[in-house]
Task: structure prediction
Amino acid sequence: MTLIWLMLAMLASIEIEGTKIPNYYTYTGYTLVTQLSVTNCTTNITSQINKAWTGDASILAIEIPKTNANLPHVSCHSDSVMGNVPQFTIYQNDNDPVTGYADRQRIEMKVFEPSPASYKAVNNTDYIYSWWFQLDKSLIAADGFFHIFQIKAVGMNVDDSPLFTFTLTVKDGLQFRVRRDDHITTDTYPMVPLSSVLGKWTQAYVESSFQEGNSLGYFRVMLKDLTGNLLYSGKVNNDNWWNQASFYRPKWGLYRKISATFQKNDTENFQNVQIWKRNF
Result:
C-alpha cells in the first residue's frame, strides 16, 4: 500500500509580526484524532495538556519531577512568534518521577493507558505525529542520552527501550534513533546540527507504519523551519511491531541522563502537537 507523506492543503494559519506560521493541515487518507493547540493562558495549561492526551482534563498526562515543587515545571509562555504556548522546564537537580533512577531526569507529556483507543497505535495501523518545538537556545547536550520525543511500546514483559526517539547529541546534533527487531541494536540517523534547532521554532513530522517485518514497517521523518524550508527528510524501514506489545504511544518532552559537567536548567516550548491516524 502506498502511503502519502505530502501535506496537501493548509486550512488556516497564524500571522504574527509579519510571519505566517502554518498551524492546521490535512493529510490525505488520515484523520486528526487529537491536537494540543494552545490559544490562551486563562485555562489551566496542565488541564489543556491532559485534555489533549486523555480526553479528560482531570487525568494527569504529564510526568512531572517531584523535586523543585515550588518552581514551575509546566507553564503557559507568551512567545513572540507562536503566541501562548506550553513550556516545560527541567531544573538542574530534578529527578525522574517514572523510574526513580538517580542517573536521569524527565518531564514528558504522553499518550498512555487511560487515553482513547484511537490515540494508541496497534498492529497494522499508520500514524503521523506532527508538532512545533523550540528548545532552549543555550541548551547543552551531554554525552548521555537526551531524548525530546519517544515512541514506546506498552505491554506485559515488553522491551522498555523506545522504538523510536528524537535525540540530542554532542557529535551528531539532532538525530533520530530506531530500535531494531533484535531488541539489542539501535541505529542512529543524524538530521541537523544543534545550531539549526536551538532557540528556533522547528516543525517535526514522524510518519510511523506499525507493521511486523523489516520490509513492511517504517518511519518517515521530516523537519522544517518557520519559513517552510526543508531541513531534513528521510525514511527508514523497520520491524515496528513487537509481539508482546499491546500498543505504542508517543511522548514529548525532556528526558536526559544526568551529566555533572553540562547539567543546567533547560526549557522546551510546544505548539500545535497533533496525532493523525490513517484511514483503512
User: Anything to note?
Assistant: The chain is about 5% helix and 50% strand. Confidence is low (pLDDT under 50) at residues 1-21.
